[in-house]
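Milestone 3.1: sequence recovery, worked example.
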């Protein structure tokens, strides 16, 4: 959530930042409410001062055992009613202000390229060189079904489209990828954490999924609970309404979870395979850092996410998202796109973002500095470390053999117990 003071003092710049996101937002109503709020607060302060003076007068009369004038009692009751009425108006206006601010996305960092959509993203670097297959390639869904490790027909019968059933060695490979990712990130100092898959509205609002992205969420019919779209939501909310000591930062967490997304704006895209499903597995990285270090922490986050792909021998590229493509809560985002030999293209496998104080303001998470004891909002970051299903797909496509088998990357073999999946 943006600081209303920033909007108040820099409205033209904030409006331009929203235009860079392809959003034409008028802040006139917000600023009117802000003005009304100040006026009402002033009136309340005056009325409270008057009430206090009258209360003092009543106290003096009581101490002198004098009869209280009816006019004075009537006046103090009138002032009390006026204060209550002004406080009700203040609550209403503050609710309007908060509702408005909750729907405004983050301001893009100055280093983010200005653009309309993903076509304006900037490729930063390539890591590894994609190998060209010497035989006719297959897509991962073809490979998986022929190997008997993926069953989309069964998933469709059970749940509907955009789900997958894994079988046999496919189950083992999925678990192996998860365990490998967790172990590698723990070696980098991330603390493993397991959280609930159901979270309340406050948690979803804290990370920015609500209210704007509610249509992409799965909500329980009974109770105000949502299935998590990513472990970012519960993990980041662990420190909601807390003050962390400067010496405790950065806090780095790694968490495996199933993820659930309606993908309401993506119908017609990736209708086959494991790339865009309603339920999928992911290992998530979350950081709580000091504001002055968040930029470098984002760069290290990207390296940590990319490292697991390099260890698996998967080629990828790092892409800096434009203002028209970054997420609602993000100030700056890098996507890691893995090479899929079967599809012959790069596809997103991780998204690493710096939210700055946007989420921390919504969740009231602060850092206390040791020297001056000053408290201020810290910065939050998160990134996929990485998407498990897409890694599964990348292994099938990049390690496929001409006879239809798939070789298991070396570092996964101690987790799988086998080095190849044969037809």
């Amino acid at each position: 959530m943006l600081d209303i003071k920033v909007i108040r003092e820099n409205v033209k710049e904030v409006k331009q930042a929203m235009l860079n996101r392809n959003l034409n937002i008028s802040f006139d109503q917000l600023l009117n409410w802000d003005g009304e709020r100040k006026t009402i607060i002033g009136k309340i302060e005056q009325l409270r001062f008057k009430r206090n003076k009258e209360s003092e007068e009543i106290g003096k009369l009581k101490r002198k055992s004098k009869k209280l004038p009816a006019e004075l009692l009537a006046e103090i009751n009138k002032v009390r009613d006026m204060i209550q009425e002004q406080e009700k108006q203040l609550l209403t206006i503050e609710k309007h202000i908060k509702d408005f601010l909750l729907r405004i996305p983050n301001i893009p960092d100055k280093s983010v390229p200005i653009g309309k959509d993903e076509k304006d993203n900037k490729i930063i670097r390539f890591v590894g060189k994609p190998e060209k297959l010497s035989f006719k390639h297959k897509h991962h869904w073809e490979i998986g079904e022929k190997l008997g490790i993926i069953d989309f027909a069964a998933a469709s019968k059970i749940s509907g489209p955009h789900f997958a059933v894994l079988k046999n060695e496919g189950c083992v490979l999925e678990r192996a990828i998860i365990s490998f990712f967790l172990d590698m990130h723990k070696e980098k100092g991330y603390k493993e954490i397991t959280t609930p898959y159901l979270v309340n509205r406050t948690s979803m609002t804290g990370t920015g999924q609500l209210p704007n992205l509610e249509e992409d969420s799965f909500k329980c019919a009974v109770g105000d609970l949502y299935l998590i779209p990513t472990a970012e939501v519960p993990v980041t909310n662990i420190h909601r309404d807390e003050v962390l000591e400067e010496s405790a930062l950065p806090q780095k967490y790694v968490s495996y979870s199933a993820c659930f997304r309606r993908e309401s704006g993506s119908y017609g895209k990736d209708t086959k395979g494991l790339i865009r499903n309603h339920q999928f597995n992911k290992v998530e990285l979350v950081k709580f850092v000091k504001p002055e270090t968040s930029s470098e922490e984002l760069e290290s986050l990207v390296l940590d996410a990319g490292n697991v792909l390099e260890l698996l021998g998967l080629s990828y590229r790092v892409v800096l998202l434009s203002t028209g493509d970054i997420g609602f809560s993000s100030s700056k985002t890098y996507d890691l796109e893995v090479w899929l030999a079967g599809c012959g293209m790069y596809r997103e496998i991780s998204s690493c973002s710096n939210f700055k104080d946007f989420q921390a303001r919504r969740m009231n998470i602060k850092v206390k500095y040791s020297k001056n004891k000053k408290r201020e909002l810290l910065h939050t970051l998160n990134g996929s470390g990485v998407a498990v299903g897409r890694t599964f797909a990348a292994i099938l496509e990049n390690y496929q053999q001409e006879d239809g088998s798939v070789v298991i990357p070396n570092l996964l073999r101690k987790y799988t117990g086998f080095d190849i999946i044969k037809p």
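The chain has a mean pLDDT of 94. The first helix runs from residue 4 to 9.
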